[in-house]
Amino acid sequence: MAEIQDINALADRIPDGAHLALPPEYSFVPMQLVRCLIRRQARELRILCVPLGGLAVDMLIGAGCVAEIEAAAVSLGENGLAPRFTDAVLSHRVSMKDSTCPALHTALQAAEKGVPFMPLGGIIGSDIAANRPDWRIVDDPMGQGNGRILLIPAIRPDFAILHSPLADRNGNVWIGRRRELVTMAHAAKQTLVTVESFTDTDLLADEKTAAGTLPALYVTALAEAVGGARPLALTGCYERDDGAIAAYAQVARTDAGFADYLARTVGAHAPEAAE
Amino acid sequence: MAEIQDINALADRIPDGAHLALPPEYSFVPMQLVRCLIRRQARELRILCVPLGGLAVDMLIGAGCVAEIEAAAVSLGENGLAPRFTDAVLSHRVSMKDSTCPALHTALQAAEKGVPFMPLGGIIGSDIAANRPDWRIVDDPMGQGNGRILLIPAIRPDFAILHSPLADRNGNVWIGRRRELVTMAHAAKQTLVTVESFTDTDLLADEKTAAGTLPALYVTALAEAVGGARPLALTGCYERDDGAIAAYAQVARTDAGFADYLARTVGAHAPEAAE
Amino acid sequence: MTCKPEEFQISVLAGLLNQPHINHVAVGAASPIPGAAALLAQQLGGGRLDVTIIHGNANNAFTDGGRELFDCAGQGRIDAFFLGGVQIDGQANINLVGTGTYPDLERRFPGSFGSAYMYFTVPHVILFRPEHSRRVFVEKVDFISAPGISPPDVHRPGGPKSLMTELCLMAFDGARGRFRLVSVHPGHSLEEILDNTGFSFDIPDSVPETQAPSEAVLVQLRSVIAPEIAKTYPGFASRVFAITPEIREFEENVR
Amino acid sequence: MTCKPEEFQISVLAGLLNQPHINHVAVGAASPIPGAAALLAQQLGGGRLDVTIIHGNANNAFTDGGRELFDCAGQGRIDAFFLGGVQIDGQANINLVGTGTYPDLERRFPGSFGSAYMYFTVPHVILFRPEHSRRVFVEKVDFISAPGISPPDVHRPGGPKSLMTELCLMAFDGARGRFRLVSVHPGHSLEEILDNTGFSFDIPDSVPETQAPSEAVLVQLRSVIAPEIAKTYPGFASRVFAITPEIREFEENVR
After folding, report:
1. Is the pLDDT assigned to residue D252 strictly greater than 90?
2. Which residues contact A186 (CB under 8 A, 6 or more apart)?
3. To bridge B270 with a disulfide, which of B253, B262, C116, D9 should be the other Cys (CB 3.0-4.6 Å)?
4. Residue C30: which pLDDT band, with cuts at 50, 70 and 90?
């Protein structure tokens, strides 16, 4: 049974060193939960971007919470490079596992299906594959002369975290057409969800809402977080705050500017966090 | 652009010998389209049940339309064995490729993903695998000592056919939580859809309906067919007509009874069709 | 209170589900007795047990299509499942395809469904086959839809744990590949079981009688579980519990 | 009519999409000029071309989550796609990761996105990189995000067909693994291209000038395409077409 609790209690479920899957930047990113993790000075997190990282990852890196990132790309989108990410990768303060979008989807699909690997077309000959000793290129294992193919190992993160507009009291979560979040939750050992609000209506009772719902079966715990994705967008609720993100992109270029940003937007513990 | 046309024109798109994927018995089965295929005396069809077959397959077999079936099981559910299927398989008048539910889902997922095969756990040591020369059991191709694993080749049917409660004028089709129909359409070269009705409202315009919609991008053509799944059920529209199916299960046990059933329910051409 | 055979079977199966490691039981298509047993176990456990009945939308939270049952099992999220068999042999191999020499069968049945996968992935598979005869319980099945045991180089977190029939309850020892008699249902004897079983199995020195449901359990079954299972299996509920369509309609309106 | 560089590029890219074998073009994230080109090609083709813009919900019919773009390409349902590159070399290898010796980079860029897959699966990949300099067009990229060509034992239905920059249009010959100059944009010269390209490429005896958009096309672009692309890229539309938020709001209300 999915538990509904306070957002700080939700954040406390994630221990240091956890392997954490995050939605891509454009929507459903649990920014408020990320700020809780920064406040409690989470350490050595391994972040899996599904498949792209942005503001959330950049802030976690800057605050010293992250040991490793796996992603197809990390940026602030139209606001340019992710400054803390770029700096940390260039100075080898975090370990970066470069991937490509479909490989990340495939790795989670393999975990969803309970198989140790899944094949994926293309990619052979790229330096991405050349730098991934965990991937494997094999001759057509079906023996049908289809040539070489890449096998991607399953990824089963400790936690999937996301922010949704709506969940019901049973813990069923509205996902809409963002089905990669369903795969992410299926693949993860635990899924933690923040929501704008809870409804008393069972989302599974109506065929229309059921089609876009992640069942509570896959959800460990939930918390309410009004504006929980801000300053990023949340489909149907609010737009991306371009000004705020542009300002972040500017100030986070320096250690001091970033520390000041954290202190202002995340809270008092921030400066120490940005070690 | 998905074309909206008459149901007979829709049926005429399916040539003799076509490889045809059909939804499972409990809902979304295009029975009216199946009756059109029987009336026009389709021949040598290869039927892929996704993953179970029932009344539609049994009637197509009895009417002499089918050369081959691939399924995890074929039955009339609570109404017992599928009589024409059982008779045809025992007398080798159709070729039966015995499979198992997840292998059929996996084969379509492989086609959806554009890869030549996909692994699947379990199944090794069953006589299903022993009788499928197209499947392949290999030692862990990742070389990690995970033992043997089954590889299922992709299946890319010529046509996926289904009956939905609703489509819009652009050809977007309501699927709800029946996501295996989405995979079936992604995997098939063409998808033909009959619907209870068309709506002027764009199903993709609202996030709620979009989440349960198969986009027109995957739909070749559509036709209106009121009661198009009867006597089977259609989610949200009508229940299964147990009496009609029980009566079918009874009369279809004999050639004469089945011929009479076809004549009464499908039309004048039926007796000849049941050669 | 007198108790129908179906009620007895539901109660015994529910007891098998009442174990600390079973948190989620799934029930396949066309399985009213296992479905009712799962709901009864959930009720008796105070709602701790998650129940998924893959037949219609009642007690079915899946939203990812036909593959979700199998994916969910592959993820290790399903702890118990029920399987049957046209034939079942002493090594717990099950046959759902037909009798005779495949593909030249004498009798053809529907097919293997998902058995060949669920048998490997679900830790507690309960075999349920009421008919206890030498036609069903054979020395060796004619077709292995799903094998009872696997060699060590095949990843297999799941497998058979119990066998429930109209005569008795057996347990399966995967390491030895053999059934062991656990208890004999009231009114039946070891001799009757031996006469009607085509494979050999272990018989402990003392074999208890299978426990019949208490009156309290029968009351819960008839008052709480019957209307719930009627949402999925109206015909069964009507026949066994005399749940009428009017009651069903009422139930559907209030849920 | 004067024509902005962006309008010129949109028009030329739209021309590349106007081919009989291109029925569906997809446009990745953060690609306003390719997005506008796809919509313009659709408009000029009378709606024959399907356009998918993976950035927001406008002109995006996908409902199966983040993997649908890649699945769709793997199914052979996407005929054209755009890719860029921090570096692009003479064999059409593209680099989106960084400069220096990986993993000891001097400059780090966001990453490869889906390029390593789309480059293999989409038959007509159009490379679009406005900045035409020796910093971008190098002899050999520092990191291959996606290779331009593949050996015969790698299944590859897709690959690069064209390269569009602020100076010229080139075509890529996959069999020879070389670019060939197709046309030089008005106001630029072959010499300028040679000076700013770090790899060698084929130069035909006579190189025409790239055709600028006709007045009719510019009118369509500004009146029909501009408000449409504003739904996905308001900042771009405002800057290039002076589409104001009020117009956008109006557009959103009527759609």
Report:
1. no
2. A108, A111, A112, A218, C64, C71, C72, C75
3. B262
4. confident
Q: Look up tokens 């892929």; give the residue.
A: B48
pLDDT above 50: residue C251: no
- Identify the pLDDT of residue C55: 82
H helices of D67-111, in order, are 68-74
What is the average pLDDT value for chain D, to the nearest integer?
A: 93
pLDDT at C252 exceeding the cut of 80: no
- Above 50 in pLDDT, residue B270? no
pLDDT tens-digit map of A198-210: 999 999 999 999 9
D57 vs B contacts (CB less than 8 Å): 204, 207, 210
Give the chain A residue nearest D75 (alpha carbons).
A121
pLDDT of C244 above 90: no
Q: What share of chain C is helix, strand, coil (3-state, %, to 5)?
A: 30, 20, 45
* D244 pLDDT tier (thresholds 50, 70, 90): low
Contact list in C for residue B126 (CB cut-off 8 A) is: 112, 116, 144-147
Residue C37 lies in a domain: yes
How far are the Cα atoms of A112, B109, D52 from residue B186, in angstroms, in the given order? 19, 9, 16
Q: Is residue C219 part of a domain?
A: no
Helices (H) and strands (E) in chain B, counts: 11, 15
d(Cα D101, Cα B180) in Å, to the nearest integer? 45
Round to the nearest angstrom and report the end-to-end CA distance of chain A.
39
In which band, very low, low, confident or very high, does the pLDDT at C192 lie, cut at 50, 70 and 90?
very high
Region C93-105 average pLDDT:
97
Class at the top of the CATH hierarchy for domain B3-99+156-274:
alpha beta
d(CA A257, CA A36): 20
Q: For an interface test with C, which of A217, A218, A219, A220 has the most C Cβ atoms less than 10 Å from its Cβ?
A: A217
CB contact under 8 A, A52 and D113: yes
pLDDT of residue B196: 98
Can you state the percent helix, strand and coil of chain D, rounding each to 5? 30, 20, 45
Nearest CB among D62, D121, D255 relative to B114 is that of D121
Buried b (16+ CB within 10 A) or exposed e, A118-138: bbbbbbbbbbbbebbeebbee
- Measure the N-to-C terminal CA separation of chain C; round to a whole number of Å: 30
pLDDT band for position A25 (cuts 50, 70, 90): confident
Kindly list the residues from chain D whose CB atom is less than 8 angstroms away from the CB atom of residue A92: 103
Strand order in the sheet with A136-139: A117-120, A148-153, A136-139
Q: Is residue C227 part of a domain?
A: no
Give how far Cα D23 sits from Cα of D8, D50, D125, Å.
23, 6, 14
Q: Sorting pLDDT into bands at 50, 70 and 90, what band is A275?
A: very low
Q: Is residue D243 part of a domain?
A: no
Report d(CA D215, CA D212) in Å as an integer.
9
SS3 state at D162: strand
Cite the residue boundaries of each domain of chain A with CATH code 3.40.1080.10: 3-99+156-274
Per the structure, how many domains does chain C have?
1
Convert B224-240 into a string of H (helix), E (strand) and C (coil). ECCCCCCCCCECCCECC
